Each structure stands twice: as structure tokens, then as C-alpha cells.
Amino acid sequence: MRSGMFEGDGARLYHEVRGSGPALLMISGAGGDAGYYRAVAQELADTFTVITYDRRGNSRSTGRSPEPMDLARQAADARGLIESVAGGHALVFGNSGGAIIGLTLAALHPQVLTGLVAHEPPAVNVLPEGDPDRRFFRDMAALYAEAGAAAAGRRFAETTRGEGTYRWPDDLWKRFLDNQDHLFATEWPGFADFHPDTAALKGAPFPIVLGAGAADRGAYYARPAAEIARRIGVPWAEFPGIHMEFLRNPAVFAAALRALATQMLTGEGRLPTPWTHQPHPHG
Description:
Domain AB hydrolase-1: 22-181
GO molecular function: triacylglycerol lipase activity
Organism: Streptomyces palmae
Order of helices and strands: EEEHEHEHEHHHHEHEHH
Keywords: Hydrolase
Oligomer: single chain
InterPro entries: AB_hydrolase (IPR050471), AB_hydrolase_1 (IPR000073), AB_hydrolase_fold (IPR029058)
CATH class: Alpha Beta
């Protein structure tokens, strides 16, 4: 694993790079920390050059500000990392808020993507009018304003299936707690206001797949994936497990993502370069 700091626009972004092969940028959601993907990145490093990072204002990155952070700023950070660390092009995987950032990146900077996997974007604004899940971000913002980050964080965890059934790495948990005020005060409005740019995503010159975990059917953060896939006319895939199965069971999640990502990058069954013109093992 190689780590470093990328000089962004007014921030230094901590990032980690593992493996070799086609570039895969993994964008995390709430807490914005590369540590979410540490184990799954190690699993995927035999196939991809996996790039993970702490999003602006989170954990080991700088750039924390009291001003609301819009999604265009988040997408520009991801684009900058792809241009500087990945040679200008990458397949992007985003989970939760990271999937929302991935969808924004695809709409604003399509030239740097070779594909996008958006896993469980909590884009509640695509749900039908009157659906109670559309209130999620407003209700959480009200709780944060009334009772603070700790109360909002506890409630957030309670809404996420599977949380509490496995142990987070201690260092990741500590950094997440330190990021909670930044999440609810600064990042929350951008996630709450997100509406996918349907026209731009329909016209994307690369494959897009929306997905959700098998254990998350009906959850507010999983249902929008199917609706966005329907609106933009792209495939939808069911992943194993829960919202953060890559933390609970990284080997299983990596196997599913590896198969999907390889298919997206090779397309129509074409063989990737490392599998062509191989010498016979017996000479």
C-alpha cells in the first residue's frame, strides 16, 4: 500500500493506492474515510489499482469548513484524484453518499470515468411524493440541530441494517466519531438536496450500474437505486449483504464487485490484455 496527500483546491486529500491493473476509485459515504475500504481494497488489489481516500474535511484530509459543501466540490476532488493518481481515467465505485458523489461526478466530469457502480445511493428525492422515506434527511437534520452529533449519529446507525452486528476497526470508528459534526453540519445539505441529472447520466459514454444489497430490500438508502436505474435505462445489480458488507465481509463483497467491474471494463466478453497472447504453460 502506498499513501500520500493530493493537493486539491484548498485542501490536501489523504489517499491510499494498492495493487496494479485498471484504476478503481472507491468513494466512501458518511464519514468519508478510506478506512471503510481497506480490507476490500486489499482483496481487489490482485485485479485493479485501487485508490481510496478521505474525503475533504474528513479524517486525515484537510479542508474542513463551516460553509455547506456542495456535491460539485466533492465531484471535483474525485476528478482531481483520477487525473493525478489514476492517469486520467478510472472505474468508480461509490457506496451510500459516495454513490451520490459518483453520480454527480459522472454527470459533471464524464471524461474521467471508464464506468460507475453506484451502490445504495440514499437519493430519497427520487421516491414518490408522500413517501415517508423522503423525510429522512430533514428529520436527521432536525435531530442534529436539537440534540447534537452524537444523538444524530446513533439514530443514523439505527436506520442502517446490520450495524451493531459486527465490529468496525478501532481506528476507523474513532475517526468517524471525529467526523460527525462535519457530516451533519457541512455535508448533509448537499446529500439532502441531491437530484440525479437524468439527461447527463443517460448520455454517459461509459457503463453505469446501480446496485443494492440483498439484505437491504425496502430500505430508504437502497430503494432509490432501482428507481435511478429505471429512469436512466441502465442495469441494476443485487450485491451480497448489507449496506456496508465490504466492512463486514470484504472477501464476499470483493468477489461480487470484481466480477461486475471486470465485465464492465471488458465489455461484450472481450478479453483484457493480460489474458491474451499468453504462452502455453508447458512451452
